[in-house]
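Journal club prep, shared notes

We agreed each person brings one worked example of a sequence with its structure written out as tokens. Mine is Sulfotransferase. I'm keeping it raw so we can talk through how to read the token line rather than staring at a rendered picture. Sequence first:
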Amino acid sequence: ILLLIRNPKDVATSFYHFSNGLSALPSYETWDDFFEAFMTKKMPWGSYLEYLSKWNKYADEENVMTVTYEEVKEDRVLGVKNIAAFLGISLTEEELQLVVERSSFQSMKKNSQKTHGTFGEILFRKGGVSDWKNLFSEDHNEKMDKAFEEYVGGTKLGKKLKYEVYCKA
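Then the structure, token by token:
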């Protein structure tokens, strides 16, 4: 099992834009309205922090590899090598480079019409890290940090996210 996790602040930011771009999901007039719903577990798929908390009990199992979006974004070559090794797949240098090239956000966004149809325009927006800084106020930041600590702060997944997001930033 490959478990891909991401900074909850960027998850909220991305989901805000995704929700407002997809008519099948509730849209929000303001970021504050969305943030309130996100923090009070009123999302169509539940709470991301609870999701992380539930997955944490499996984080030490040998058939589970946890990867953060941030670490793959920082070094796709190493990320692909680690994932391939975990899955028991040996890649030639040519295959590795092909996967690295095709898994770049820019490549996936460019091909999104072919791979996802019109849904691709909504699904592939920026693909960056730390976009949350464009929406979060100091109050939002404090509330998210407090909820993060409550749900996953001291857990293996929480520590991995903290390291990738805060220590490497």
